[in-house]
């Protein structure tokens, strides 16, 4: 992977310099640029296209809608993290409005930055995924979600666990999405795929709430569980578990999974819910 550019936007010069120095000293191949106000942020976005943006909540002069539009249009899927002196009661609203991946309390530690860098590198590193489901509708929805999510994934689809097992002999898969509705032995099939390739992380797809099935997941080598109807944030959260990544504050702001009676048909485009596609840009500064 090439140079990773990090933008540190903080109105306080001392905070900005300390964080920039800490990031630059973490690893090679990281370039740190700085901005003292919103105008400087937008200038960097148009010129340098940073992959990671660390932005203080007290930063003045930032055009919220324009910033959000750039984030949503960025082909690099840049990560934005908010820097906060204190985690306030309304941080969920602010973080959601700017599509923030995480909220980091100041002073930001090296460990927090390392976690952010590791997560970003895992997201942009292409991973091969086996999608095992007998339902073409389920497969179509998940492929759409994957395309809208934060992770770079290459999907191979299989109608049966047997077809997937055959493919596992010749090819390595980092993740396997296994539909519990595949057959009555879906858990056993997932366990066999996990045993066949110890490097594969299994995500089980099911209808029941996770709390009802959590106790039986671990013995079968299941890394994460994804409840229907699916959504982009929930898929990203399951992938964070599968890849053993730090759980960012983003997931604390997620709404609960709708009950089946409240959910729309998963085959409709409306079931593919993405925060970036439903928010109205709001100026926060």
Number of domains: 2
Order of helices and strands: EHEHEHEHEHEHEHEHEHEHH
Pick out the low-confidence regions.
Answer: 259-285
Largest sheet descriptor: 5 strands, parallel
Rough shape?
elongated
**What amount of the residues lies in strands?**
15-25%
As a percent range, the share of helical residues equals: 25-40%
Radius of gyration: 20 Å
Taking all residues together, what is the mean pLDDT?
A: 80
Straight-line distance between termini: 34 Å
Q: What is the subunit organization of this protein?
A: single chain
Give the CATH topology of the largest domain: Rossmann fold
Name the CATH class of the largest domain: Alpha Beta
Widest beta sheet: strand line-up: 2-1-3-4-5
The structure class reads alpha/beta
Please report the number of helical segments: 11
CATH superfamily of the largest domain: Response regulator
**How many strands in all?**
10
Corresponding CATH architecture of the largest domain: 3-Layer(aba) Sandwich
